[in-house]
Amino acid sequence: MARQPRAEEAQRVDAEALVIVSASYRTDIPAFYADWFRRRLAAGQVRVRNPYGGSDSLVSLRPPDCEGFVFWTRNLDPFWPALDEVRALKLPFVVQFTLTGYPRALEPAVIPEARGLDQLRKLVAEQGGRTAVWRYDPVFATDLTPPSWHRETFTRLADALADVVDEVVLSFAQIYAKTRRNTDKAAARHGFAWQDPPEEDKRTLLVELSEIARSRGLSASLCSQPELLGEGGLFGGPEPARCIDAQRLSDVANAWGMASPIAARTKGNRPGCLCAESRDIGAYDTCPHGCSYCYAVSASERAKTYRRQHDPQVERLGD
Q: Shortest CA distance to 51 belongs to which of 207, 283, 208, 227?
């Protein structure tokens, strides 16, 4: 258990005014922590642990400090009431929705593909097309998912989403130490092999997937992997992604009759990231989806244990 903040820290609201709130690239808040989020939304603020050490911060979830939300998820079903509550506060939001169609050996607890497609259709029907971005990431290279599998699966999903979303975000899996450890365990358990392909092979597949997307009216973007764009950009491939996209949030706000544009500066999280400045309110080691390639969970059992013991009344996710 982390130390409790001192009284003076508990009163400190993060000094960065006018922020976009990211919920969350560290965990799947819509799928697993909807009740917690709704309680924090009602309270108007959330406490966030600094994952690199140091004191907690408080992040406002209400206007005028909060300009809008970007939600990251694989399952919106528990979160529909929360979306309505966010919109009632006149705060625009965008949902970055991951849908890959991977086999269970790689994604043991993700909802079925058809259900994910239905959720994206419902989101757009209820909230408008600019609220949804499809993520086909990470592109993961295994003998269960060779390039031909990716082309076939991506084509099927792009066909289903051609009249639903306007953008698909791509990226290849980043092989961190925890990714390698967890994937090696899954490979031994399920009997598959995996690799981190050469950059040229990655570029070739990205071009192919981008062409499939564009032929169906979708723009293709690449998340924080400038080395795969090639010098001056990759002809025929994806453009650099802006996953925290102030312009898209402004478009949503305008569509909902909110005139004020979102004026956030670009402040990426790593080289090649073009995201607008934001504050993430999630916590690592809390997503129990158990995806083998996940960068945010060091051990799936640890995340599952946290989910079972989670109290939605806590101020800070991860406690």
A: 283
- Which residue do the tokens 């898209």 mark? 248
Q: Which residues, 6 or more positions from 284, have their beta carbon under 8 angstroms from its beta carbon?
A: 26, 27, 51, 296, 297, 298, 318
Q: For residue 115, how far is the Cα from the chain centroid?
A: 18
- In sequence order, the β-bridge partners of residue 69 are 21, 93
The token pair at 208 is 């192919």
Predicted pLDDT at 54: 78
pLDDT of 69 strictly over 60: yes
Give the Cα separation of 185 and 190 in Å (integer).
9
d(C-alpha 41, C-alpha 25), whole Å: 18
Q: Judge whether 310 and 36 are in contact, CB under 8 Å.
A: yes
Full set of structural domains in the chain with CATH: 7-309 (3.80.30.10)
Please state, in angstroms and rounded to a whole number, the distance separating the CA atoms of residues 261 and 307: 37
CA count, 13 A, side-chain hemisphere, 228:
28
Name the β-bridge partners of 170.
136, 222
Whether 69 contacts 93, CB under 8 Å: yes
Look at residue 251 and give its three-state secondary structure: helix
User: Average pLDDT of the chain?
Assistant: 90
Contact 23, 282 (CB under 8 A): yes
Helix (H) and strand (E) counts in the chain: 10, 12
Tell me what the mean pLDDT of segment 264-271 comes to: 69
Residue 51: count of CB within 10 angstroms of its CB: 14
